[in-house]
Amino acid sequence: MVGRRKLALVVVLTTALLATVAATAQAGSSASAYKVGIIYSRTGLLASYGGQYVEGLRLGLSYATKGTNKVDGHPVEFNLQDDAGNPTTAVGVAKDLIGQGYKILAGSTSSGVALQVAPIAAQNQVLFISGPAASDAITGVNKYTFRSGRETLQDVNTVNSFLKGSGKKVVVLDQDSVFGHGNYAAVKALVGAKGHTVSEISVPLSATDFTPFAQQAKNANPDLIFVAWAGTTAGAMWKALDQQNVFNGPDVVTGLAERATWASLGDQATKIHFLSHYVYTAPKNKVNDWLVAQMRKKSQVPDIFTPDGFNAALMLVQALKKGDYNVDQMITALEGFKFLGPKGFEAIRPQDHATLQPMFRVQLVKSGSHLVPKVLGTVSSYDTAPPIVAMKG
User: Fold this and answer.
1) What's the gap between Cα 11 and its chain centre?
2) Is the dihedral of CA 49, 274, 151, 381 positive or negative?
3) Rg, C-alpha atoms of the chain
4) Which residues of 74-93 are buried (b: 16+ CB within 10 A; e: fewer)?
5) Which tens digits make up the pLDDT trace of 131-152?
6) Which residues, at least 6 apart from 281, have a Cβ–Cβ distance to it below 8 Å?
7) Which of 77, 132, 154, 195 could link 150 by a cystine bridge, Cβ 3.0 to 4.6 Å?
């Protein structure tokens, strides 16, 4: 009799143990990690941009999940992969991650990388959220691709905010390159559409004496000069404009890059008006306040592309909450998504996945031996919105 009782007790305990194991396994399954592949520039020419993006990404996930880094009990795991700014490397990494079962890719510091990864995402039906890459061609490239940063047309639309009234004369001073002519074409299309006259002064890449071009810009007697320039000759170009007293007449406008580049603008830095994607002193909202406070704990402040990573995290959390790692449902969750990010209120346009966002007008001023941004104004997401493009795939 005692033996039967012992046997019954063993059976009961074994059954209870199995039930506990099964429940634990079921709970573990329900809380499995959401895996996200981050393909970005850890090294290479755009490594500083990549670092800013990843810093923002991690902080954005912490903010969106109230410090848990989990969505509905599922840990969100980032697999960080370096593309070194090389599209071929990025494509290889993307294919490998997709082969491992990843359904979400993000990152892309470089436009060249983003434009190669986007078709891979479409072919394999995975979600792709591009990062700081600014090419307009990313918008509307396919239904699987979104962007957490701004695009070039939003930069150019900001130029209009420096022009009051209509019928103004605008000169684009650029380099004889795809980059330079692309900026001219964008300014002519968008600024010209507002009733302004736009002309181009194109400088050969081999030029070392910029005085003739500075004189040409001054003699054109424009209301605004938009400078589209890249490379090590920028300092000499700005100096030539100053020597020809160009700054005494029209607004001279260009894009403001990351803080590390400000000193290279030389003595002319305080004479230039800048269109700005982001400086941490510009937005006035609780998300930006939180971001700045977190980074100040490490004696840092956010830089130009920190919000792009932060936005990516907000978008990921939205997609996962509504879509639960189902790609079609995650796409639906992001289309039309409105959110408050570090820059202010933003929205993902459902027609082409452009991320509508405010931009800023900025001037640099001296503070002791340093340059600091003085915010001249905010340009609304409505005024900076790029034209809607048809979804290509």
Assistant:
1) 60
2) positive
3) 25
4) bebebeebbbbbbbebbbeb
5) 999 999 999 999 999 999 999 9
6) 372, 373, 375
7) 154
Q: Which residues contact 271 (CB under 8 A, 6 or more apart)?
A: 242, 247, 252
* Residue closest to 310 by CA, chosen among 43, 63, 2: 63
Q: What is the pTM of this model?
A: 0.88
Residue with tokens 């992969």: 81
Q: Tokens at residue 168, please? A: 């103004």
d(CA 388, CA 382): 12
Does residue 224 contact residue 253 with C-beta atoms inside 8 Å?
yes
- Is residue 222 scored above 70 in pLDDT? yes
Angstrom distances, CA of residue 376 to CA of 218, 246, 360: 25, 21, 8
CA angle 333, 96, 85 (to 5 degrees): 85
What distance, in Å, lies between the first and last C-alpha atoms of the chain? 75
Q: What angle do CA 367, 370, 373 make, to 5 degrees?
A: 70
